Amino acid sequence: MWSYQAPLRDMQFVLEHWLQAPEAWRRSLVFEALDLPLAVQVLEQAGRFSSGILAPLNSIGDRQGCRLVEGRVTTADGFADAYRAYVEGGWPALACAEALGGQGLPQVLDAALQEMLYASNHAWAMYTGIAHGAYLCLKTHAAAWLQERYLPGIISGETLATMCLTEPQAGSDVGLLRCRAEPQDDGSYRLSGSKLFISGGEHDLTNNILHLVLARVPGAPTGSQGVSLFLVPKLLNQGQANGVACDGIEHKMGIRGSATCSLVFEAAQGWLIGEVNRGLKAMFVMMNSARLHVGLQGLGHCEAAWQNCRSYASQRQQMRAPSRPAGVVAQAADPIHYHPAMRRVLLELRATSEGMRAIGYWVAHLLDQAEHDPQLLARQHAGQLAQLLTPIIKAFFTEQGFRQASNALQVFGGYGYVTEFAIEQTLRDSRIAMIYEGSNEIQANDLLLRKVLGDQGQAFDLLLAQLREESRLGAEMPQCADFAAQLANLCSALHVLVGEVRERSLEDVEYPYRAAGSFLQLCGLTLLALAWARAARVSRQLPEDDPLRAVKLETAGFFFSYLLPQAEQHMAAVRGARARLAFI
What percent of the chain is modeled with pLDDT above 90? Predict the structure, then answer.
């Protein structure tokens, strides 16, 4: 009763028209051989893998979960075979540098791949989700010999990686961690301590697992300034077991097919990545990649929910609707998608999923530009924008993934609450994304205090410039002029609001923390406004007989009429946060 098909037509629309990515690829020495037909072929193959291999395993993983016997984890039926097919397809190497054995394709195509993986089988994709971040971390910070030894396995998919931060007493505050790393005469370290909530900490998909572990060396400063990062393999060079053991797996609300492990390190051999006491600097290369991917989980859940409730609503007949499309004869009972309440939910799902796709791919495209654009200033601005938008992507997308899955469940009525229809699994699976890789509350604080107020608004001014330019272009097209005007008004209101927040923060140090959550929601809605203003404008480039042209304009109209008014509520909440919160 649950299915998934990759939304390839909309993905192509975003790449070709919304981003105009092929033009950017032609300007880049790295991607100049890539064109749109080749990119579409890659997405088509990824779609076949996701819908044909991963999606059928989604409910199996939920029912079976993982099994831990004598320290070894067995994944659900079909998971290991699916991973072998993933490796044979070359997917781990997609966005890795050609010089290192990768395919050298842009991160925006990897973002599309990740959306498909998470939409079709979130639990399975947890095993592969951190791999690209680990690749970037080692490529940026590891010693040359470590890169030579371990990068090829990550790129080929022969090995998978984990990120080991959390300890029982140290969750979001990694400065509280106690895991120890004792230096050895041969230049290695011996790590001892416990970690928990480690996704893929033990499994049967690969023989070796590379654990990237935060720990303290002797004499390290207290707090986060005394944390170092180490590579600790499950198996050492000759295949002998290292001092790493899985002593438990969590039984969870969702993503049950993902092995969430507690690990014990007993004098496990590892090697320093980066500098001593600078582990967070190295780890955040991986964390930032992970936060974009977690945001794409929210997009994947929203898309899967949209597809399945749309299909159900077209078949389920209940009562006579007050109106019908032209030419449809009245029946004793109509498909529920004719009823206004259901049309409202379905349109919100479509507007949210397609809008988030444009913004999510934009951030991935910005990462490509930040690394490969031939112009220095363009690289700098792309990097600033990507950093600004990352916490919004992580927090806003994951909240929408959960919210829209809940809305979709409502379309199913009572059937949505039973396991046969599987929308309840989407709801359960989506909830974790709001918590891990930095809770959404932390993302909100990071956005407002560090990314907006912290740099005197430089990055935020770049975003406002994007909004103004889009409103200017849209104003020149009659069918888009109203959308452009609303976007321009929102841009002006945001500029004023940030000035007010900055001024108030000088008087009340806690105020931006109280306002941060509402401010992030406002920014997320603003990004959707940008997405739909541009989508409406560039859809005019499509042939008049292309159905997508009318759909984009129709959905943009729905967004600006029904969803954008929420911006006023968020602005009022930011201003209302001047009232102090009582201590409980």
Answer: 91
Longest dimension (CA), the chain: 84
pLDDT reported for residue 285: 82
Determine contact, residues 129/293, Cβ cutoff 8 Å.
yes
Contact 273, 212 (CB under 8 A): yes
CA-atom Rg of the chain in angstroms:
24
User: How large is the average pLDDT for residues 100-110?
Assistant: 96
Enumerate residues 6+ apart whose C-beta is below 8 A from 525: 563, 564, 566, 567, 570
CA–CA distances in Å: residue 462 to residues 14, 452, 507: 21, 11, 27
CA pair distance 391, 387, nearest whole angstrom: 8
Of 518, 313, 524, 259, which Cα lies nearest the Cα of 401?
A: 524
User: Distance (Å, rounded) from C-alpha 425 to C-alpha 255?
Assistant: 8
Token pair belonging to 469? 């330019």
Residue 274 DSSP symbol? S
Rounded CA-CA distance 160/124 in Å is 13
Residue 327 has pLDDT above 90, yes or no: no
Catalytic residues: 437
DSSP strand pairing (189-199 vs 209-215):
unpaired
pLDDT digits (tens, 9 = 90+) for 170-222: 888 888 899 999 999 999 999 999 999 999 999 999 999 999 999 999 999 99
CA 81 – CA 187 distance, rounded (Å): 38
Yes or no: say if 448 and 515 are a contact pair by the CB < 8 Å rule. yes
As a whole number of Å, the end-to-end CA separation of the chain is 46
* 566, HSE (Cβ side, Cα atoms, 13 Å): 16
Which pair of tokens denotes residue 79?
């998971």
Yes or no: say if 228 and 214 are a contact pair by the CB < 8 Å rule.
Answer: yes
Average pLDDT over residues 553-578: 98
Specify whether the CB–CB gap between 186 and 153 falls below 8 A.
Answer: no
3-state DSSP call for residue 268? strand
What is the per-residue pLDDT across 494-521, written as a single tens digit (0 to 9) for each? 999 999 999 999 999 999 999 999 999 9
